[in-house]
Design goal:
Blueprint: H1 2-15, E1 18-22, H2 24-27, E2 46-54, E3 58-66, E4 73-77, H3 88-98, E5 101-105, H4 119-135, E6 144-149, H5 151-160, E7 167-171, H6 177-182, E8 193-197, H7 206-212, E9 217-222, H8 230-242, E10 247-252, H9 263-277
Parallel strand pairs: 1-8, 4-5, 4-6, 6-7, 7-9, 9-10
Antiparallel strand pairs: 2-3, 3-5
Helix pairs in contact: 3-9, 4-5, 5-7
Length: 281
């Protein structure tokens, strides 16, 4: 125990006056070893796979899990650790809750996707991807939703910014990068560490994108999430509401990225998709 305290104190002394910077390299998922897994379709679903040519950007690996009985679609944006190949359980949970078609895709450097991992490319990817999905007829005139987990929340918000979506679902994510970044700093050394966000990240307006099209938003927060805490998501909900966005927020047990294992979250997704899919008279 004494040795642990000494280590912590030494770290605090070393970090005194230290400035940690969140920039483009920390904002986007880093390259990682692919999982030893294969994506499997939920019961009753048909799996289709494609490499999309996004003009001026590169190629993107996408998969559709098609429910023949549905014309509603959810485009899933995963977290930093996302690989499509490893999403069998999450896809099954989302399919069970919503009954919709699901579209999943791999980030740069994963699954054959070679789009640059830059802010500019990220902003251009959403519209280009939607254009190609319509060309394939993977999305059409039916209700369309975006679901974003953690880092994927920002990507989902950017995709919906130009409209055309019935709803936006965000799990374990918030727009205040600095507040979320401070959650990664151990409590004992927080007084010694200054956190700075690269001004270049200001060009990616997460909050603005989430509100631009007035798309209704469902926020899912996990009570024991130490990466994006409940208070971060409550603050995000307040910011969205202040800008006139229709927001629902549900807090469920569990840690970061586990909301879809909780019955209350699945019920919230089911109700949100059903409600926002109804024709507006």
């Amino acid at each position: 125990m004494r040795g642990s305290v000494a280590t912590i104190l030494a770290a605090a002394m070393l970090l005194a006056g230290c400035t940690a910077v969140i920039d483009q390299s920390s904002f986007f998922p880093a390259s990682a070893e692919p999982p030893q897994a294969v994506l499997r379709a939920p019961p009753g679903y048909v799996l289709e796979e494609a490499m999309l040519d996004l003009t001026g950007l590169g190629r993107m690996h996408v998969v559709r899990l098609d429910n023949p009985a549905s014309n509603t679609t959810i485009i899933y944006h995963g977290g930093n650790g996302n690989f499509v190949a490893a999403q069998t359980e999450r896809a099954a949970a989302l399919a069970g809750a919503s009954g919709t078609d699901l579209i999943l895709y791999d980030y740069p450097g994963r699954g054959g996707t070679n789009v640059p991992a830059t802010i500019d490319a990220s902003l251009a990817t959403g519209p280009a991807m939607l254009e190609q999905l319509r060309r394939l007829r993977w999305i059409g005139s039916g209700p369309l939703f975006a679901y974003g987990l953690s880092f994927g929340g920002s990507q989902a918000a950017a995709m919906v910014r130009n409209g055309g979506f019935s709803g936006l679902i965000i799990e374990g994510s918030a727009s205040d990068i600095q507040a979320v970044g401070r959650n990664f700093i151990p409590r004992l050394v927080k007084p010694f560490v200054r956190l700075k966000v690269d001004p270049a990240l200001g060009r990616f307006d997460y909050l603005g994108y989430a509100t631009a099209s007035r798309t209704p938003v469902l926020l899912l927060s996990s009570a024991d999430d130490e990466i994006v805490r409940v208070r971060n998501m409550r603050a995000f909900a307040d910011q969205l509401k202040q800008r006139g966005t229709q927001v629902e927020m549900v807090v469920v047990p569990g840690q970061h990225g586990t909301a879809l294992t909780q019955p209350a979250a699945l019920s919230a997704v089911r109700d949100f998709v059903s409600k926002q899919s109804r024709p507006r008279g």
